[in-house]
Design goal:
CATH superfamily of the largest domain: Periplasmic binding protein-like II
Helix content: 25-40%
CATH architecture of the largest domain: 3-Layer(aba) Sandwich
Radius of gyration: 23 Å
Number of domains: 2
Strand content: 15-25%
CATH topology of the largest domain: D-Maltodextrin-Binding Protein, domain 2
Number of strands: 10
CATH class of the largest domain: Alpha Beta
Distance between the termini: 77 Å
Number of helices: 10
Largest sheet: 5 strands, mixed
Strand order of the largest sheet: 2-1-3-10-4
Length: 258
Protein backbone atom coordinates (compact mmCIF):
# COMPACT_ATOMS: atom_id res chain seq x y z
CA UNK A 1 0.00 0.00 0.00
CA UNK A 2 2.88 2.35 0.67
CA UNK A 3 4.10 2.07 -2.95
CA UNK A 4 0.63 2.80 -4.32
CA UNK A 5 0.50 6.08 -2.41
CA UNK A 6 3.98 7.16 -3.56
CA UNK A 7 3.53 6.30 -7.24
CA UNK A 8 0.99 9.09 -8.07
CA UNK A 9 3.28 11.60 -6.40
CA UNK A 10 6.27 10.45 -8.44
CA UNK A 11 4.25 10.56 -11.65
CA UNK A 12 3.05 14.05 -10.78
CA UNK A 13 6.60 15.24 -10.29
CA UNK A 14 7.64 13.67 -13.57
CA UNK A 15 4.83 15.29 -15.49
CA UNK A 16 5.54 18.66 -13.91
CA UNK A 17 9.19 18.46 -14.97
CA UNK A 18 8.36 17.62 -18.57
CA UNK A 19 6.14 20.64 -19.14
CA UNK A 20 8.78 23.18 -18.02
CA UNK A 21 10.16 25.09 -21.01
CA UNK A 22 13.68 24.13 -22.08
CA UNK A 23 16.38 26.53 -20.96
CA UNK A 24 17.75 28.65 -23.75
CA UNK A 25 21.40 28.40 -24.68
CA UNK A 26 23.01 31.40 -26.36
CA UNK A 27 26.02 30.70 -28.57
CA UNK A 28 28.29 33.63 -29.36
CA UNK A 29 30.54 33.46 -32.42
CA UNK A 30 33.19 36.19 -32.09
CA UNK A 31 36.34 37.29 -33.86
CA UNK A 32 39.49 36.03 -32.11
CA UNK A 33 40.48 39.57 -31.11
CA UNK A 34 37.25 39.79 -29.08
CA UNK A 35 38.04 36.72 -26.96
CA UNK A 36 38.80 38.47 -23.67
CA UNK A 37 35.93 40.93 -24.01
CA UNK A 38 33.32 38.28 -24.74
CA UNK A 39 34.57 35.99 -21.96
CA UNK A 40 34.25 38.81 -19.43
CA UNK A 41 30.83 39.87 -20.72
CA UNK A 42 29.64 36.27 -20.39
CA UNK A 43 30.96 36.06 -16.84
CA UNK A 44 28.98 39.16 -15.87
CA UNK A 45 25.80 38.48 -17.79
CA UNK A 46 22.90 37.67 -15.43
CA UNK A 47 22.00 34.40 -17.14
CA UNK A 48 20.38 32.52 -14.26
CA UNK A 49 17.28 31.98 -16.40
CA UNK A 50 19.21 30.66 -19.38
CA UNK A 51 20.76 27.38 -20.35
CA UNK A 52 24.11 29.14 -20.34
CA UNK A 53 26.20 31.16 -22.75
CA UNK A 54 28.60 29.37 -25.04
CA UNK A 55 31.30 30.98 -27.15
CA UNK A 56 33.45 30.17 -30.16
CA UNK A 57 36.41 32.27 -31.28
CA UNK A 58 38.18 32.22 -34.64
CA UNK A 59 38.82 34.39 -37.68
CA UNK A 60 35.65 36.22 -38.73
CA UNK A 61 35.80 34.47 -42.10
CA UNK A 62 35.89 31.03 -40.49
CA UNK A 63 32.94 31.82 -38.24
CA UNK A 64 30.88 33.33 -41.05
CA UNK A 65 31.36 30.23 -43.18
CA UNK A 66 30.46 28.00 -40.25
CA UNK A 67 27.23 29.94 -39.78
CA UNK A 68 26.55 29.62 -43.51
CA UNK A 69 27.05 25.87 -43.17
CA UNK A 70 24.44 25.70 -40.41
CA UNK A 71 26.47 25.99 -37.21
CA UNK A 72 24.19 26.85 -34.25
CA UNK A 73 25.05 30.47 -33.46
CA UNK A 74 22.95 33.14 -31.76
CA UNK A 75 25.21 36.22 -31.90
CA UNK A 76 27.97 37.03 -34.40
CA UNK A 77 30.73 39.58 -33.79
CA UNK A 78 32.94 40.22 -36.80
CA UNK A 79 36.25 42.09 -36.97
CA UNK A 80 35.21 43.77 -40.20
CA UNK A 81 32.09 44.66 -42.14
CA UNK A 82 32.88 42.33 -45.04
CA UNK A 83 31.98 39.11 -43.28
CA UNK A 84 28.91 40.59 -41.63
CA UNK A 85 27.81 41.77 -45.09
CA UNK A 86 28.48 38.24 -46.35
CA UNK A 87 25.94 36.82 -43.91
CA UNK A 88 23.47 39.65 -44.37
CA UNK A 89 23.47 39.13 -48.14
CA UNK A 90 22.52 35.52 -47.47
CA UNK A 91 19.81 36.52 -44.97
CA UNK A 92 21.64 34.73 -42.16
CA UNK A 93 21.61 37.67 -39.71
CA UNK A 94 18.83 40.00 -38.61
CA UNK A 95 19.81 43.38 -40.12
CA UNK A 96 17.54 45.20 -37.66
CA UNK A 97 19.84 44.11 -34.83
CA UNK A 98 23.10 44.97 -36.59
CA UNK A 99 25.23 47.69 -35.04
CA UNK A 100 28.87 48.68 -34.70
CA UNK A 101 30.20 47.51 -31.37
CA UNK A 102 33.71 49.00 -31.30
CA UNK A 103 36.79 50.06 -33.26
CA UNK A 104 40.48 49.19 -33.05
CA UNK A 105 43.96 50.11 -34.31
CA UNK A 106 46.89 48.27 -35.87
CA UNK A 107 50.28 47.96 -34.20
CA UNK A 108 53.60 46.75 -35.58
CA UNK A 109 55.23 44.63 -32.88
CA UNK A 110 58.52 42.94 -32.14
CA UNK A 111 59.67 40.55 -29.44
CA UNK A 112 60.21 42.23 -26.07
CA UNK A 113 63.53 40.42 -25.71
CA UNK A 114 64.97 42.00 -28.85
CA UNK A 115 66.67 45.40 -28.92
CA UNK A 116 65.17 46.65 -32.17
CA UNK A 117 64.60 50.38 -32.36
CA UNK A 118 61.27 52.01 -33.06
CA UNK A 119 60.35 51.86 -36.75
CA UNK A 120 60.17 55.03 -38.79
CA UNK A 121 57.72 54.26 -41.58
CA UNK A 122 58.93 57.24 -43.60
CA UNK A 123 62.37 55.75 -44.10
CA UNK A 124 63.10 53.55 -47.14
CA UNK A 125 62.60 49.84 -46.41
CA UNK A 126 61.89 50.34 -42.69
CA UNK A 127 61.57 46.59 -42.04
CA UNK A 128 64.82 45.53 -43.74
CA UNK A 129 66.98 45.56 -40.61
CA UNK A 130 64.40 43.66 -38.57
CA UNK A 131 63.77 40.97 -41.16
CA UNK A 132 67.40 40.45 -42.10
CA UNK A 133 68.05 37.71 -44.64
CA UNK A 134 65.55 35.10 -43.43
CA UNK A 135 63.12 36.79 -41.06
CA UNK A 136 59.41 36.95 -41.77
CA UNK A 137 56.58 39.28 -40.83
CA UNK A 138 53.64 37.63 -39.07
CA UNK A 139 50.18 38.78 -40.13
CA UNK A 140 46.74 37.24 -40.46
CA UNK A 141 46.19 35.81 -43.92
CA UNK A 142 44.99 38.80 -45.99
CA UNK A 143 42.99 36.47 -48.19
CA UNK A 144 40.34 36.21 -45.46
CA UNK A 145 41.52 37.32 -41.97
CA UNK A 146 40.37 40.89 -41.20
CA UNK A 147 43.57 41.86 -39.37
CA UNK A 148 45.56 40.68 -42.36
CA UNK A 149 43.29 42.52 -44.79
CA UNK A 150 43.80 45.76 -42.86
CA UNK A 151 47.56 45.10 -42.61
CA UNK A 152 47.89 44.63 -46.35
CA UNK A 153 45.88 47.79 -47.02
CA UNK A 154 48.20 49.75 -44.72
CA UNK A 155 51.39 48.35 -46.21
CA UNK A 156 50.18 49.00 -49.75
CA UNK A 157 49.14 52.59 -49.03
CA UNK A 158 52.46 53.21 -47.30
CA UNK A 159 54.31 51.80 -50.30
CA UNK A 160 55.81 48.94 -48.26
CA UNK A 161 53.90 45.89 -49.50
CA UNK A 162 56.43 44.94 -52.17
CA UNK A 163 59.19 45.01 -49.56
CA UNK A 164 57.55 42.33 -47.43
CA UNK A 165 55.00 40.44 -49.56
CA UNK A 166 57.39 37.52 -50.10
CA UNK A 167 58.53 37.54 -46.47
CA UNK A 168 55.24 36.85 -44.71
CA UNK A 169 54.26 34.25 -42.10
CA UNK A 170 50.50 33.98 -42.57
CA UNK A 171 48.23 32.90 -39.72
CA UNK A 172 44.59 31.81 -39.45
CA UNK A 173 43.75 34.65 -37.05
CA UNK A 174 45.39 37.66 -35.43
CA UNK A 175 46.22 35.82 -32.21
CA UNK A 176 48.36 33.46 -34.27
CA UNK A 177 50.47 36.39 -35.48
CA UNK A 178 50.84 37.63 -31.91
CA UNK A 179 51.99 34.20 -30.79
CA UNK A 180 54.67 33.92 -33.49
CA UNK A 181 56.26 37.19 -32.42
CA UNK A 182 55.91 36.46 -28.69
CA UNK A 183 57.72 33.15 -29.18
CA UNK A 184 60.46 34.79 -31.22
CA UNK A 185 59.60 32.74 -34.30
CA UNK A 186 59.23 35.92 -36.34
CA UNK A 187 60.98 39.23 -35.59
CA UNK A 188 58.04 41.44 -36.48
CA UNK A 189 54.28 41.23 -36.86
CA UNK A 190 51.14 43.30 -37.23
CA UNK A 191 48.31 42.86 -34.72
CA UNK A 192 45.51 44.87 -33.19
CA UNK A 193 46.41 47.39 -30.51
CA UNK A 194 44.11 45.56 -28.10
CA UNK A 195 46.23 42.40 -28.42
CA UNK A 196 49.18 44.11 -26.75
CA UNK A 197 47.76 43.63 -23.27
CA UNK A 198 47.68 39.84 -23.68
CA UNK A 199 51.41 39.25 -23.30
CA UNK A 200 54.54 40.94 -22.00
CA UNK A 201 56.60 39.12 -24.61
CA UNK A 202 56.03 41.74 -27.32
CA UNK A 203 56.49 45.49 -27.61
CA UNK A 204 55.23 48.15 -29.97
CA UNK A 205 57.58 49.24 -32.72
CA UNK A 206 55.11 51.67 -34.28
CA UNK A 207 51.39 52.27 -34.74
CA UNK A 208 50.03 52.23 -38.28
CA UNK A 209 48.20 55.43 -39.24
CA UNK A 210 44.40 55.40 -39.27
CA UNK A 211 44.50 56.79 -42.79
CA UNK A 212 46.50 53.84 -44.13
CA UNK A 213 43.60 51.38 -44.00
CA UNK A 214 39.85 51.16 -43.82
CA UNK A 215 38.35 51.85 -40.38
CA UNK A 216 38.60 48.78 -38.16
CA UNK A 217 35.00 48.17 -37.17
CA UNK A 218 33.41 45.37 -35.16
CA UNK A 219 29.80 44.86 -36.24
CA UNK A 220 27.53 42.63 -34.16
CA UNK A 221 24.13 41.13 -34.95
CA UNK A 222 21.78 38.30 -34.05
CA UNK A 223 22.01 35.23 -36.26
CA UNK A 224 18.72 34.42 -37.97
CA UNK A 225 18.60 30.80 -36.88
CA UNK A 226 19.45 31.52 -33.25
CA UNK A 227 17.22 34.42 -32.27
CA UNK A 228 15.66 34.02 -28.82
CA UNK A 229 14.65 36.24 -25.93
CA UNK A 230 17.86 35.32 -24.14
CA UNK A 231 19.98 36.13 -27.21
CA UNK A 232 18.28 39.53 -27.43
CA UNK A 233 19.00 40.17 -23.74
CA UNK A 234 22.63 39.20 -24.19
CA UNK A 235 23.02 41.51 -27.19
CA UNK A 236 21.41 44.34 -25.21
CA UNK A 237 23.82 43.72 -22.32
CA UNK A 238 26.83 43.57 -24.66
CA UNK A 239 25.93 46.83 -26.40
CA UNK A 240 24.80 48.60 -23.23
CA UNK A 241 26.75 50.49 -20.55
CA UNK A 242 28.15 47.33 -18.93
CA UNK A 243 29.45 45.99 -22.21
CA UNK A 244 30.89 49.37 -23.19
CA UNK A 245 32.85 49.53 -19.93
CA UNK A 246 34.32 46.08 -20.58
CA UNK A 247 35.28 47.06 -24.12
CA UNK A 248 37.08 50.16 -22.85
CA UNK A 249 38.85 48.11 -20.20
CA UNK A 250 40.32 45.91 -22.92
CA UNK A 251 41.43 48.83 -25.06
CA UNK A 252 38.65 48.98 -27.63
CA UNK A 253 37.25 52.31 -28.70
CA UNK A 254 33.67 53.32 -29.20
CA UNK A 255 32.41 53.48 -32.76
CA UNK A 256 33.40 56.83 -34.23
CA UNK A 257 36.33 57.23 -31.82
CA UNK A 258 39.92 57.59 -33.01
Amino acid sequence: MRYNRILPLVLGLTLTATVCPAAETVTVFAAASMTNVVEEVISRFPDSRSGGIRSSFAASSTLARQIEAGAPASVFISANSKWMDYLQDRKLIDPATRQTLATNRLAVIGAASESAEQINLERPQPFAALLGDRGRMAIGDPAHVPAGIYARQALERLGLWNDVSNRLALTDNVRGALTLVARGETPVGIVYATDLALTEQVRVLTMLPHSSHEPILYPVALVTGGISDQAKEFLSFLTGPEGAAILRKHGFREAGGQ
